[in-house]
C-alpha cells in the first residue's frame, strides 16, 4: 500500500489539438501549434514541481495514417520546439530523451532530436521522454525479440527480467508510470506504455490539450495524492484507538 503526494513518473496522452482548433474554426495545424505552448508550460511546471520523469505522447505509430500535410506540420513543429527549447531544458537541468522508432523519422527531425539529446545528456533534473513514432505493442514485441538473445542458457522469463529490457533507459529513473493523464475526453490508451501502466493511476480530463495548463497539472497531482495504491494487497488497518490508549 502506498499513497504518495508526488508521482515520480507522470505520462500524458496529449489529445484534443484537432478538436480545439475545429471549435475555433481553425485548421488542425493551429491546434498542434497551440499544443506546443502547453508542452512548454507543463514541462516547466513538472520540473519545478520536482517530478522525476515525464513521458509525453507526441506522435503514435498509427498517426502516420493522417494526411501527409498534417504529419509534416507536426514534425515541423517538433523541430521548432527543439530549436527553441533545448537550451532552456539544459539550463534547468532537464534531460530529453525520445522513445519510439527512429528509422522512419524525417532526417531533419532525427538530427534535431539527436542534437537535443546530446545537449541535455548530463541533466540530472526532470527526465523528459517524448514518445514519437511510438507504439507500445511494437516496443514490447521488439524487446521480446531481443530478450531471447539476452536470456542465454537460462530458459526462464519473468516481469522482473523483462521490464528492464523493455525500458531501455539506462538511468532507471522512469520505469512504471505512477500517474497517466489523458486530455481530450477519450478514455483509452491508444497503444501507449501498456506494460508501464500496469498499476498507473488513470486520470481522464475533458480539457483539450491546448487548454491544459499548470493548474490542471497541479489538480491532477492533488487527485493522485488522494488515491490509495494497493498493488493487489489489502489496505493496512487504521491503528485502533483503544490500543493507542493502552500503550500510554
Ligand atoms: C493529439 O491531438 C496530437 C496528436 C495525435 C499528434 P489530435 O490531433 O489527436 O486531436 P483530436 O483528437 O483530433 O482533437
Ligand atoms: C493518441 O491520440 C496519440 C497521441 C496523443 C500522440 P490519437 O488521437 O492518435 O488517438 P486515437 O486515434 O483517438 O485513439
Ligand atoms: Mg486525437
Q: Would you kindly provide a written description of the structure presented here, covering whatever features stand out?
A:
The protein is of the alpha/beta class. The protein folds into 2 domains: 9-134 and 176-225, Undecaprenyl pyrophosphate synthetase; 140-173, no CATH class. The chain is 44% helix and 14% strand. It contains 8 helices and 6 strands. It has a 6-stranded parallel sheet, sandwiched between helices. Helix 1 (17-23) crosses helix 2, helix 2 packs parallel to helix 3 (68-91) and helix 3 (68-91) packs parallel to helix 4 (107-119). The protein is globular and about 65 Å long. The protein starts with 8 loop residues before the first strand and ends with a helix. Bound molecules: 3-methylbut-3-enyl trihydrogen diphosphate (2 copies) and magnesium ion.
Radius of gyration using CA atoms only:
20 Å
* Fraction in beta strands: 5-15%
- What does the oligomeric state look like here? single chain
CATH architecture of the largest domain: 3-Layer(aba) Sandwich
CATH names the topology of the largest domain as Undecaprenyl pyrophosphate synthetase
Number of helices: 8
